[in-house]
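P.,

For your records, the input lines for the assembly:
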Amino acid sequence: MWQNHREIKVVILFFILIPILSGCWDSKEIEKRANVLAIGIDKASEEERKMEEDVSHLGKKFPIPDEEMIKVTAQIAVPGRIPLGPQQPGGAVKPVLVVKVIGHTFQDAMLNLQQELADEVFLGHLRIIVISEEIARKGTSRFNDLLRRNPEIRRTASLVVSKETASKYMDLTPELERIPSLYLADIVDNLTAIGKFPPSFIGLFWTIYSSKGQDTYLPYLALKGKKTIQLNGLAYFHGDKMVGKTSPLEIGVFMAVRGIGRGGYGAFVEVPGEDESVLVRAVSRKTRTKVKLKNGIPHVSIRIQYESEIDEKESAKILLSDSDMLKKIEKESSKNTKKSIEKLIAKTQKLNSDIFGFGEHFRAKLPQYWNKNVKTKEKWSEIYKTITFDVKVDSHIHRVGMKSK
Amino acid sequence: MGDPKEITTLQATTILISTIIGVGVLPLPLFAVRAGETSAPFVTLTGILLAAIGLMILTYLGMRHPKKTIITYSQDIIGKWLGKLFSIFVIFFFVILTSLAAREFGAVVVTAVLRETPLEVTVIVMLLLASISCRNNINVFSYIHNFYVPMILAPVLIVVAFSLKNANSLYLRPIFSGNDIRDMAAGMLTISALFQGSFIITMIIPSMKSPKKALKASFWGILVSGGLYLLIVIATVAIFGPEEIKQIFWPTLELARTTAIPGNILQRLDIIFLAVWVLAVFTTLFSSYYFSIHSIKELLGLKDHKMLSYFILPFVFFLAMLPQNILHMYEIIQYIGRAGLLITIMYPAFLLIIDFLRSWRKKKNVAKSS
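Structure tokens returned:
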């Protein structure tokens, strides 16, 4: 009798547990989701502004003026058209759908986007966010609040600044990859891996933005022709506003000061005594940054050790066959690097943008000075203008490749 | 008591470890950084030390009365009625602790993973699991903990190890940031409140094979769990920096979200981490739930605790639903946690002092009469 009761209980329990434990509540088929792969943010033009409907707010009662409205271009994966392997026949159909919406804030635009789509917008596969330079110069913090709050967003997604309008990048069809947004994302990730850019993802951007003694930087992209994208430099920020950009080679200089070990850039170095030059490529670097106070003024000393290789020489006149020659090139290369480092630091000082994170060194190593004189991020960027620095570069060329001369 | 005395020292240690590691792992770096900025690891360390002292007092007290728990020996030490009164406080506190842990679990799940599932469902499922498991005796209780400990420890260590490649040691300096001492003290109390699950040792000692080794078990228990907590704080601060952590509710979860296993095997580890964390929460809930009903049983002098298991479920669920929103919930958790230290540290210390005085007087009396 008791045994029977027990069995009945177990069976009932079993049936109760099935709906609870299977976690079906949140299940959603993949084709019922609008997977946003990439987002571009632009300033809305005057005609575009008029297109806005009352989706998330009524009428004119809104604190953000119409002039600051944004246009969001989203790349949405079309179910079934995303190729899963390389063997799929390349059809003429585009694997993504590009939708343009406008709004006062990011979420306002996303709500407008949802209003135009049958499926629920899903941001879990968002790989890259492109911000046009125009918007970046006005400030980026207004977009970051949504991105931080939404649990679907990956912290490892990329954030980049584009020279042209961001919507152009969304319409692009690169040849190297079937899915345009994946190609865009790979540009940032792979160039980081081969030493062309310091690590950069949205989580890191937030981390640097929050900390008191440093300013953020992002990759700066430019279109070359119709289908190629170039890493055109490094956009640097003061607070959340972009204030300038570097040349591509200066990215390498920046990485050296920031202490990122992986080298990737090469530069022509004039051989002393001759009119010719060789291309010296940095392989790895080692950076030591020391900070101290000189008569109450913050002073930074940077020591960088380069390991380089010679990739190419310009003409046959130069003979790369004895080590003395290499020593001379090393010296010249060090001198050039030192000069460009000093130039870059001076440039960022003028614009109050401590992308090198010197402030963090002062905060960490001279806490008394920091607590007494600095304390806030605004104060630090003022002081950053006045700091002094000295740079010492040591290059070592260990290899010259397979050629003996 | 019907329970066989079979719990080994190792089992006692693992019970402590898996009980201590629980929901608190997620907001821990936030609590630490709010209190101490770059001195967060130091604040954590002091919190661990305070918790360790409390646990040692309790264990020592338990070893002096190796056949009883705090519910029963408190009646010997400070008298029947006073002892029962304080025991009611202890039980009530652990019921609240259980409900808050369940609620915090539900809040994280609803915000971060299952956004459509109602909060009530996640909470009730967790509480049901705990209450069903609580119908077993203390040996099964220890097996369950023993079984889950490796699964709780390993993934956390993996996440920390893989994340360290983005670490920046500058964020950890200066070690003593010269923050407001009162903030730091409050943070220390909050962090040591995360270790309150270790109170369970008082229930385990009577069932241990050799209660004399209980001190060893508590030492290792707090060393492993405290070490893990300290490691988590150091890793999150080194990666995010104090200013960024202040903006994140659950920095440990965010750490798992940022961390990838190299070679694109897994681009984010948060799903694995959350799966494991569910186990950690379960073992914590299981312990505090078990302790609550076990203590009620002893207080009322009942033979068996099984029927109490479902009996207190509605109360726990009701308490879990009381906080109005997530901010309110964390205010309550911090407040209750700190206040609870009175019960988990001050009360045993008070009992120990009285106990010492009594045995000293007894000795004197014996000496006089002879």
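Two observations worth noting. The domain at 9-353 of chain B is CATH 1.20.1740.10 (Amino acid/polyamine transporter I). Residues 75 and 81 of chain B are 7 Å apart (CA to CA).

Regards
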